[in-house]
Amino acid sequence: MLSKKTKYGIKAIVYLARQKDRTPVQIATISNEESISLKFLESILLTLRKNGVLGSKKGKGGGYYLLKDPKDINMANVMRVLEGPIAMVPCVSLNFYEKCDDCPDENACAVHGLMAQVRDSSLEIFRNTTLADLSQ
Amino acid sequence: MLSKKTKYGIKAIVYLARQKDRTPVQIATISNEESISLKFLESILLTLRKNGVLGSKKGKGGGYYLLKDPKDINMANVMRVLEGPIAMVPCVSLNFYEKCDDCPDENACAVHGLMAQVRDSSLEIFRNTTLADLSQ
DNA sequence: TCATTATCCTAGTAAATAGATAGGGTTTAT
DNA sequence: ATAAACCCTATCTATTTACTAGGATAATGA
Fold first, then answer.
1. B47-82, pLDDT tens digit by residue?
2. Is A110 within 8 Å of B7 when comparing Cβ atoms?
3. Could you tell me which CATH number the domain at B4-66 has?
4. What would the pLDDT profile of A12-56 be if each residue is shown by its tens digit?
5. Which residue in chain B is spatially nearest to A90 when comparing CA positions?
């Protein structure tokens, strides 16, 4: 299941991508427009900023803005920042790899092969989808 | 994340598919061979039986066995039985559809479209993969 | 028939995670 | 200065996951 965190995070950056210009948008504005809890959204935007997706400006007239052009933001990166691994099992994850404790031989594991295929196809979609695609 | 339940369930049916014949195999045997907690596996096999994947026989010489030929068991069905929806969000699920409360218009939702693509590609893999494929 | 074997089934529990919420601290524009 | 906004850590509650307990039921065979 996709977490609300990821869902809200994507909605928020789509909202930013749809803005006419790149002037900062306040959390409260996005919260109202997209019906997302203010405090929850605050923490989500913070992680997006800490991971290089968003920039922010403090004080009056401040807010969040996209650091790159929407067409240069691919969803694989966004998914990893918000949701974590794209793979369904750690043992097939490219960026968050972990060995299974219950699996003596990874290559002999039936689950491993299947989940590697699923990861590949999902990853291809996320990599080839940009924020610009989602914002149209 | 794939649940342990699903992972163990797949391992168990792969184990059954690899048997020479279709005589019942005891839970305890699978539990030992695949290093899966006996009681947990018991409940997993029970749900597989209740959903038409496995048959069972009680009493001495009893156990679980596949109801169909491995090449006629597609993993989409197995995944739905064990893991639930294949889609990452209920609003794009074919078999477990639910409307989002926070989404006024589904077709205008950027997350919806992206997740529908992911569901399609995952589903294609699961549908085209049989238990026989995994057992080789 | 009766003891043994093995599944059936309901309920419960501990730990982790999700989804928020609280409440200040810090920075900036005016 | 003062108000506007983000920054940051901590906490809380509900749900889910992973697993456990313990008996009920059914089949086999001596």
1. 999 999 999 999 999 999 999 999 999 999 999 999
2. no
3. 1.10.10.10
4. 999 999 999 999 999 999 999 999 999 999 999 999 999 999 999
5. B1
Phi, psi for B57 (deg, rounded to 5): -135, 130
Domain ranges (residues) in chain A: 4-66, 72-134
C-alpha torsion sign, points B11, B17, B18, B22: positive
> What is the C-alpha separation between B104 and B109, in angstroms, rounded?
9
Tally C-beta pairs within 8 A across A and B. 72
Handedness of CA B25, B31, B36, B40 (dihedral sign): positive
Comparing alpha-carbon positions, the chain A residue that sits nearest to B102 is A35
Substitution target in A88, A103, A119, A127 with the highest count of B β-carbons within 10 Å is A88
Indicate the pTM of the whole model.
Answer: 0.95
Paired sense of beta strands B63-66 and B54-57, if any: antiparallel
From chain B residues 48-107, the ones with a CB under 8 A of any chain A CB are 75, 85, 88-89, 102
